[in-house]
Amino acid sequence: MLEIVLVLFVPHLRSEPENIGFLKSNITLFYFLFIIVNPFFEELIVRAYGITEFLHFFKKEEIAVLASTLIQTSYHLYQGAVPAILNGLLFFIFSIYFAKKRRIIPIILVHGFLDIYAMFQLHGT
């Protein structure tokens, strides 16, 4: 829904991820291991550690959630504006969940599942 609204109001934005040719290479053991390990690094560093440190520094949950979301969204901008914004919405939900529950494993599992799903979508299998 958000994608449709964004494309209607800003039609020159591409809704398909860009600059992801490196992810379309053959699925090798190392490629698959990267897809498995990546969610641990992203979520443990940007979400768990980031939110914990921002909470300690700013003492406001809202700022910690927003900062974590913006940081993680910013390094997905290579995919294009619309995909980064859509990813950012998911990161925002993940950040709120972590700030409220203080549980990172469910987020890592969902992130991992989505990365594996995307990997198979890119390879048409």
Topology record:
Blueprint: H1 2-9, H2 29-58, H3 61-74, H4 81-101, H5 105-122
Helix pairs in contact: 2-3, 2-4, 2-5, 3-4
Can you give me a brief rundown of this structure?
The chain is mainly alpha-helical and 125 residues long.
Largest sheet: none
Summed up, the helix count is 5
What does the average pLDDT come to?
Answer: 85
Give me the Rg, rounded.
Answer: 16 Å
What series of H and E elements makes up the topology? Answer: HHHHH
Kindly estimate the percentage of residues that lie in beta strands according to DSSP. Answer: under 5%
Identify low-pLDDT runs.
none
Helix content: over 70%
Which structural class is indicated by helix and strand composition?
Answer: mainly alpha
For the terminal residues, how far apart are their CA atoms? 26 Å
Number-wise, the strands total: 0
User: What coarse outline follows from CA principal-axis ratios?
Assistant: globular
Key descriptive features of the protein:
single chain, 125 residues, mainly alpha
Describe the structure.
It is a single chain. With 125 residues, the protein is mostly helical. It has 5 helices and no strands. Helix 2 runs antiparallel to helix 3 and helix 2 runs antiparallel to helix 5. It is globular and about 45 Å long.
